[in-house]
From TrEMBL:
Pfam family of the protein (one): Glycos_transf_2
Protein name: Glycosyltransferase family 2 protein
Subcellular location: Membrane
Superkingdom, natural source: Bacteria
UniProtKB keywords: Glycosyltransferase, Membrane, Transferase, Transmembrane, Transmembrane helix
Length: 322
């Protein structure tokens, strides 16, 4: 195991950043201070996820005064999942830590994560004990999504965050063996298994600026999380079909009995209601199937996860081309 065999391990810290120019220098100086205090070799890979502000200029300046800080600029906003993957692909460390750029993930937890790694943990999950600043709506949505994913997909992402330490072995698996386009990092890392440990932290308030997640981007991530970990929604569609079929037989039998007793079957309202209900069942079902087909289409196209337009302090791409 890398943690034990390597006498002078290198620690990489991956920081995805989207329009974080206000707070990025402060955040990186905090992180680098904590890393230096551990006495280990370190590097920070900050990934500018297509920011429209001066995030990358800030990162390049930091990189020219501190070569251990390296930066990548993606060609546009590819989303946090792709930015994290880019960081993982370029990180050279024996252990890689992923942390937000807004200091909502407390860097002071890093030494404790490294301790767990030294003791043999290959994945250290930082789990949220509280969600300080989040609105009630966001807390409720996050709770509902996590519940659904853990119930349906059989993986526990409750209160988990993207703040994690990964051993080199795990990073290589994620980079080389999990090439899927539809990514849900929290789900993937809990799907892996291996030797995992959880540490708890309180979510700090955002350093500067506002959350980058809109309602739609969260919805998109939730659909990705669901479709990439379970096909249960498709099965529900089948069961729904069977249930309506049984109901249909019941109503038909009832109509035949009524007719044979000489009673005409009335019910304009019933006809309209059932038409509308069944019509919407069919459309919703098509929508669910469509979601899966769209995801398959994304995978088949196999476009790159991200494109890089600039870098600072990066020597070479860690990952050989596939
Ligand atoms: N982020 C990113 N790309 C995006 C959205 C967010 O790289 O498209 C980064 C962002 O800069 C931050 C982290 O992901 O470092 C978490 O984002 P944010 O703080 O907005 O999310 P929240 O804390 O509200 O979940
Ligand atoms: Mg945040």
């Amino acid at each position: 195991m890398t943690a034990i065999s390597n006498t002078n391990p290198l620690i990489s810290v991956v920081v995805p950043a989207y329009n974080e120019s206000q707070g990025i220098s402060h955040a990186l100086s905090q992180i680098s201070g904590i890393l230096s205090a551990t006495g280990l070799d370190w590097e920070i890979i900050a990934v500018d996820d297509g920011s429209s502000d001066t995030t990358f200029q800030k990162l390049s300046e930091l990189s020219s005064s501190e070569p251990r800080i390296k930066a990548l600029a993606l060609s546009r906003n590819f989303g946090k999942e792709s930015a994290m993957l880019a960081g993982l692909e370029y990180a050279e460390g024996d252990a890689v830590i992923i942390i937000d750029a807004d200091l909502q993930h407390p860097p002071k937890l890093i030494p404790a994560m490294l301790d767990q790694w030294r003791q043999g943990a290959q994945i250290v999950h930082a789990v949220k004990r509280s969600r300080n600043q989040d609105s009630l709506a966001k807390k409720a949505t996050a709770h509902a999504i996590n519940k659904m994913i853990s119930k349906l997909g059989g993986i526990n992402t409750n209160n988990s965050s993207d703040f994690k330490l990964l051993d080199r072995e795990i990073v290589d698996i994620i980079v080389y063996q999990l090439p899927e386009r539809q990514r849900f990092f929290r789900g993937l890392t809990s799907w892996l298994g291996f030797n995992e440990v959880s540490l708890y932290f309180d979510v700090d308030n955002r350093l500067d600026g506002a959350s980058k997640w809109s309602f739609w981007s969260l919805l998109e991530l939730s659909i990705t999380a669901l479709t990439s970990f379970t096909s249960l929604p498709l099965r529900i569609v089948t069961f729904l079909g069977i249930a309506t079929l049984i109901l249909g037989f019941g109503v038909a039998t009832d109509a035949v009995i009524s007719l044979s007793n000489g009673k005409a079957v009335s019910g304009f309202a019933t006809t309209i209601i059932s038409l509308l209900m069944i019509g919407s069942f069919i459309m919703i079902s098509l929508g669910i199937i469509g979601e899966y087909i769209a995801k398959i289409y994304e995978e088949v196209k196999a476009r790159p996860h991200y494109l890089i337009k600039a870098s600072a302090g990066i020597r070479k791409k860690n990952r050989p081309p596939l």
